[in-house]
Amino acid sequence: MVELYLLLAFMIIGAIVAIEVKDMLSTVIAVGAVGLALSIAFLQLKAPDVAITQLVVEILCLIILIRATLKRDLPFSTTGRWLLNTVITGCFVAVFVIVGIKCFKDLPEFGYPIMRVSRTYIEEGLAKTGATNLVGSVILDFRAYDTLGEATILFTAVIGVLAVVRKIGRKKEGEKVEEEE
Amino acid sequence: MSREHEKGMSLIVKTVTRLTVGIIFLYGIYIVSHGHLTPGGGFAGGVIIALSFVHLMLAFGREAALKKLSRAAASFFESTGAIMFLVIALLGFTGGYFFLNFLGKGQPFKLFSAGIIPLCNIAISFKVGAGIFAIFVALVILELEVEGKE
Amino acid sequence: MIVYLLTLVLFSLGIYCVVRKRNVIKLIVGIMIMEYAVNLFFILVAYRMKGRAPIFSPDAEIVNMVDPLPQALVLTAIVIGLATTALLVGIAMKIYEKYHTFDITKIRELRG
Amino acid sequence: MIPVSADIIPLFVAVPLAGAFLNSLIGKKVKWLPDVIGNLTTLAVLVLSVISVRLVTEYGTLVYSVGGWKPPVGIGMVLDGLTAFMLVTVNLVAFFVAVFSVNYMEKYTSKQKFYTLFLLMLAGMNGVIATGDMFNLFVFLEIASVASYALVAFGTEKHELEAAFKYAVMSTVGSLFVLLGIVLLYSYTSTLNMADMARVFAQKGTGDITLMVSVLFIMGFGLKAALVPFHAWLPDAHPSAPAPISAMLSGVLIKSLGIYVLCRIFYSVIGITPAVASIFLFLGALSMVIGVFLAIGQWDLKRLLAYHSISQIGYVVLGIGLGTPLGILGGLFHLFNHSMFKSLLFLNSGAVEYSTGTRDLQKMGGLAKRMPVTGATNFVASMSIAGIPPFNGFWSKLIIIIAAVQAGRYGYAFWAVLASLLTLASFMKVMKYGFFDRLKERWGRIEEVPFFMKLSMVALALICIFGGVLLLGGINQVFLDRATAVLLRGTQYAAIVFKGS
Description:
The complex is a heterotetramer. Chain A is mostly helical. Helix content of chain A is 70%, strand content 0%. Chain A has seven helices and no strands. Chain B is built from six helices and no strands. Chain B is elongated, with a radius of gyration of 18 Å. In chain D, 76% of the residues lie in helices and 2% in strands. In chain D, helix 1 (11-26) runs antiparallel to helix 4, helix 2 (33-59) packs antiparallel against helix 3 and helix 9 (234-240) crosses helix 12. Chain D is globular, with a radius of gyration of 21 Å. Chain D is an all-alpha fold. Chains in contact: A-B, A-C, A-D, B-C, B-D, C-D. Chains B and C meet through helix 6 of B and helix 3 of C.
């Protein structure tokens, strides 16, 4: 499990870089590095489906964000507050970790999940759905309704982006506006 | 910047793109069609298919990619994929339940198995591929407009 | 336990970024980091010591599979994250078109 | 034809989704098609939700297993009294808003995208209400939220984009808190079905982890419901949206995504503890008072209404937090009433903006003379929200105050009365400056709004006038009482759901 700790440490450092660096492009690249480390961590945790999806989504997000930030590098005023920022971050993290230490004792130990419901999927999934990829059988058969929701969210986002980037939102008084593509 | 984009990137990039874009596209189709057997599935495959078009657009410019898949076609495929998925879900009512896996399960480890799961994968891949391409085109066009104004 | 806590640290870094930073792109980045942390947490919860990926193989009997349910849910969560990010970037670029800046201290038409 | 089984439940999601997809596929072909699809779909869902009330009276709690998989394995959808109540509220408002949009959205471009997003938002809300599964709830919560971000930015003007971005960022953070809470719950209980979760909590007891989950949920859903410490996005986002969408957001979105889910999780799944109840009371009272104080100074009509939404949501949370039968009844009844009169008020503001092009109260004056229908309906809604006797708002506020006194919470009762008086003052201002003052020169030639807008405003005003009828014996028993009973039964929810399936 040493790899996992290394990956997590890498992700935390990457996140700090992404948050604190002033250059916009560097921010985006750093967050991309975090995402790719996450993808490797998924692979390490035996979740190949998730790893593939995370990888492709990460590439896509990176392309979109780079296109959005390219040539729009703006000066960015965080100087002079470095100490304050660090203190606030420290407090945040400390509160979360203390609460976490107190609460995570109730959770099952890492590496030993309860798997009450999931046992059904593992034992009967192949026989009942015929799909050898159990994750596939869960997302498209046992919990296909969630996937309908997921597809709908992406649909919503597409329509939303197309609606937001319209050239003209409101019609002016007495003006005839061509419905655009 | 905007004129450069109409033309695309350098010759090396274009040549490599010409070689790789077909492979990426086929890989996407493979991921979709084997979603119920191996890791992957409709969503990842759909994004890969969309990325192959995005790749084309980045290398050759907007026009080349839109010639292969126009915006109208993209939005048509997107809605069709969504409706296909919903229809598969509603067809389950023939067996009594919303989203019932009403087809035969077939032999495990075969390509044609697992009932509606491959069909759903295909529907999702249509939806996702076309949808992400549409988002990307919309953002690129917006960006070109912004740059044009400055 | 320690991996959970490290993930929580990542999550709180994301919150810090959203609360503290004053740039549109940084806000989006903060949200992305929070999403990563939550997704990672979900997969960590599903892991079994010396587990195998939940995919059957025609050749070998596979025992001790990791929990497939959270993996399916994380797939959904990743897509939701992508959709949100795409919409946020769309709005952000439109904001840039109107205001010519990503700095939200300068984007202040509204009070409150 | 009334389907006699639980088969009706998935239709609440499937019908609006089908409408949205069809709209996006063929809505561009004919100009009037988006209007027709949008209105027919909302009408169909409204009819279905009225049928669902009848089904609940007849058969009790109904459970639907999606895909034929029994709930803990598959996803269960639950239809009980509270669900039916919320479905009716949401779909009633949605239908009138869709009717209103036929004329109003002519001011904007791309009606097709508007109706598509509108139907998606409706599908998301119905999905949240009808589901019995934790993660599924999150998915539909996100559908409704993402659609609402896009709708707030629909005008694509400067301030609209800014408000939408602010709203999107804060709401997404809320969603991520919720998701983290769901992950912790999954790890602790190893199930996602709400009823199953309640059963595990009953066996295993609630440990420290529940505390953290509760805090995450209160923060997450509090952000969605705009309770006071988390309200900063609402006064920007709600006024910036087109008027029908403001009506939807203020009228039902913050309730179905915020209040309903809070009730469902804390009453039915985790089980309400005195600590959580007192947090509810405190947040409710805080929202009630701060919202109304912030509202008084506003001159922008829609902004004023948005602050009043915060205040009125406070009443609902206060009522529900009391935990007594009367308190819950009052809270839920006020939720229904607020949906009606706040939607109506936002539609009125939309009508004023449609005719005059302004939202500034100081620029208006005497509009009732030129726009009699808008003026009259606005009067009804203002009196309702201020709690003047014959109108519906009076009854629900009265019940909440009586319940607070009965429970011995005199302080909260006092704040509720005070907030009500301040609300009255604030709406006197609206009436005086907006509608009943001397008619200003420049508005001499404005016209009353078109037919469909008038129709939906009048219909909502009638509901406001006769809303008190819902408290009468027979109607109360099938509608409000059943919803109250669900919350009062608390964590017996699990047993009932498993019997139902």
